[in-house]
Specification:
five-stranded antiparallel beta sheet, three-stranded antiparallel beta sheet, 18% strand, globular
Length: 415
């Protein structure tokens, strides 16, 4: 069983993520602690927020008072609701959160049942719950629960198996929820150092992203827009402001994450695995399709950017094991776009009419064209307070940037 622990500032965001799954019929509430259960069994986020808020003191010093945990059994483990509830409650008790208010959600939006738990890291006196060696203690607890319930051990499970995200499908509607349910987990999971690398990651899930910046009436602005894409990488909806999805999807948070990612990638030497696998694949293969298959077998996706002449001008590798996104140039001069342009051209593979080729959990999809700066005013989004719902948008917002006509560029993985 794999446990993933996330901490944050927005209780509303954590509850809304799970409640959205409930509303869509992909999740249900299994149990609560110190959170009142309505007689009709229909929970509302506002009521739950009130219960959590009554527990919290008016002042506390913890920067991130919210904890969001996912417990993911092995796919071969078939557990009843009662067993999942017992596992969730025992885990929280052993981790030190047994006396805290929390809610346990069962998710069934992927093939394997798993649970999410939302709780508080601050007690009723404003003191932070002890998180010393929390990840190590969590691992020991999951191993103990595996033995008690006869579960498969966590070893052998793919890293990231707890987040098998569903690509956005324009035909299913409610695109704001679909996009938010992909963008937010990806931001928690992956490390990237540029907007282009993040855009390449999003393209795997039929999501486009563009930066908008400029100045209107003496005021400068800098924001992010997200869009649903079709199989040809074309937008299928009006772009959605990051402020609608939440603080963590905006420019300020992205820039902070990119800086932190750069430090982590360097200190943990996260490029080494990707560089070695790519180098070996280049030696073993001669065509783009074979190269992609070689990388896919090692848990790496390739995203290429091509111009109208089919020339490669951008290369990005997405390592799902290390959860890191790397432009080819970051791996060294031997992995630049020019090198791969010559590499595939010399192979003689006909790529004039590229088609998508995906393996594993990914579906057919293609990334959008590179976004360019727009010149309309976009609000970068207000901050989510700890106990407040998403802020209402102004009654009258400035229009979205006018869509520019631009050259057609092919993205994504092509065979």
């Amino acid at each position: 069983m794999v446990a993933k622990i996330s901490t944050g500032q927005s209780l509303y965001g954590a509850l809304a993520y799970n409640q959205d799954k409930v509303d869509e019929g992909h999740a249900q509430i299994l149990a609560t602690n110190l959170v009142l259960q309505p007689e009709d069994g229909l929970f509302s986020i506002n009521d739950c927020m009130d219960d959590f808020q009554r527990w919290m003191p008016s002042h506390f010093r913890t920067e991130k008072p919210v904890i969001h945990i996912s417990l993911n059994p092995h796919p071969d483990d078939v557990l009843t609701d009662e067993q999942l509830t017992a596992i969730g409650e025992e885990y929280m008790q052993k981790l030190g959160y047994g006396g805290q208010p929390y809610m346990i959600f069962k998710h069934e939006d992927i093939e394997r049942r798993h649970i999410h738990i939302v709780s508080l890291r601050v007690d009723s006196n404003g003191k932070k719950i002890n998180d010393s060696n929390e990840y190590r203690r969590s691992k020991a607890i999951t191993e103990e629960l595996e033995q008690k319930y006869g579960l498969h051990p966590a070893e052998g499970q793919k890293k990231g198996e707890d987040w098998q995200l569903t690509p956005v499908d324009s035909n299913k509607g409610n695109l704001k929820k679909q996009i938010g349910n992909v963008v937010k987990p990806l931001l928690k999971m992956y490390r990237f150092q540029s907007m282009g690398e993040f855009r390449a990651l999003l393209s795997l899930y039929n999501i486009g992203m563009e930066e908008v910046k400029g100045e209107v009436n003496g005021r400068s602005y800098h924001g992010i827009l997200y869009s649903a894409l079709d199989k040809d990488g074309e937008k299928t909806c009006t772009p959605i402001k990051s402020s609608v999805l939440g603080k963590m999807t905006g420019v300020v948070s992205l820039e902070k994450q990119m800086k932190q990612s750069g430090t982590a990638i360097k200190e943990k030497k996260l490029k080494e695995r990707t560089r070695h696998i790519v180098s070996v694949a280049m030696q073993r293969t001669r065509t783009e399709s074979d190269f992609r298959k070689e990388l896919s077998a090692q848990g790496i996706d390739l995203v290429l950017r091509r111009n109208e002449e089919n020339r490669i001008y951008g290369v990005t590798f997405i390592d799902h094991q290390n959860r890191v996104v790397l432009n080819g140039s970051r791996l060294g001069k031997d992995f630049s776009a020019n090198v791969f342009n010559e590499y595939f051209r010399n192979a003689g593979e006909n790529l004039s009419q590229p088609q998508q080729h995906f393996t594993g959990d990914h579906r057919e999809r293609q990334s959008s064209a590179d976004s360019k700066s727009a010149t309309r005013d976009i609000s970068s989004g207000s901050l989510l307070s700890l106990f407040s719902p998403d802020p209402a948008l102004p009654e009258r917002e400035l229009p979205l940037p006018r869509k520019r006509r631009k050259k057609r560029r092919r993205y994504g993985r092509q065979d």
